[in-house]
Amino acid sequence: HGLQAGLLRAYQESASDLVRDWCVQLLADAQVMGTEMEGIVKAALKPECTFLKTLLYYISQNPRRFQDCKSQILALSGHTDDEVRWRCVYVLEKLVLDYDSDAATLRALFADHCETTRLYAVLAFKRLRRLETEDVQALQALIQANGGVASADVQDLLAGRFDPYCSADPLAHQRTQNAS
């Protein structure tokens, strides 16, 4: 805890952005938790941040603490860096999503040139538990772009098999498993 406290103190007291950035990166890499650290991470979550990958990994380890950052993460999912985009969608998959506010961003990521981004976009979309005509068209375009091959997750979505863990009924997945 001495090192963590020292890094937090250095972050608070340093006038140097470089020192502050390094402190945040080290603290995030060490998965230091707490209200102060969460505030620091949330404040750093901007497109120009040079260590977004580290911050997104940090957030992915405790996504519930960062639900209020969903709109920032949705915006960052259009970042120029492939790894930042797929990490954004990886985090989004772990957050509470809403079809009306989140579907368009996820649907657009079906066409991303990075395969990992497309994969996590499909997984996150399964959590929306809803599929409209434009979603089916985007999934069909994804299949075409993939040489006519549909991943199991795309097949699940097209068949209406959504993520059972997203139900308003927290025991729905147990009943589904027991019925099998």
List key phrases describing it:
single chain; 180 residues; mainly alpha
Describe this structure in words.
The chain has helices spanning 2-13, 17-29, 35-44, 52-61, 70-76, 82-94, 99-109, 115-126, 133-145, 152-158, 172-179. The protein is built from 11 helices and no strands. Mean pLDDT is 87; it is low at 167-176. Helices cover 64% and strands 0% of the residues. The chain has 180 residues and is an all-alpha fold. The chain starts with a helix and ends with a helix. The longest helix is centred in the first third of the chain and has 13 residues, at 17-29. Helix 5 runs antiparallel to helix 6.
In short:
The chain is about 65% helix and about 0% strand. The protein contains eleven helices and no strands.
Low-confidence blocks of residues: 167-176
For the biggest sheet, the summary is: none
Write the H/E string, N to C: HHHHHHHHHHH
- Count up the helices: 11
What's the rounded overall pLDDT mean? 87
Global geometry? elongated
Q: Tell me what portion of residues adopts beta-strand conformation.
A: under 5%
Distance between the termini: 48 Å
Helix content estimate = 55-70%
| Class by alpha and beta content | mainly alpha
Task: Summarize the SSE layout with pairings.
Blueprint (H helix, E strand, L loop, with lengths): L1 H12 L3 H13 L5 H10 L7 H10 L8 H7 L5 H13 L4 H11 L5 H12 L6 H13 L6 H7 L13 H8 L1
Helix pairs in contact: 1-2, 4-6, 5-6, 6-8, 7-8, 8-10
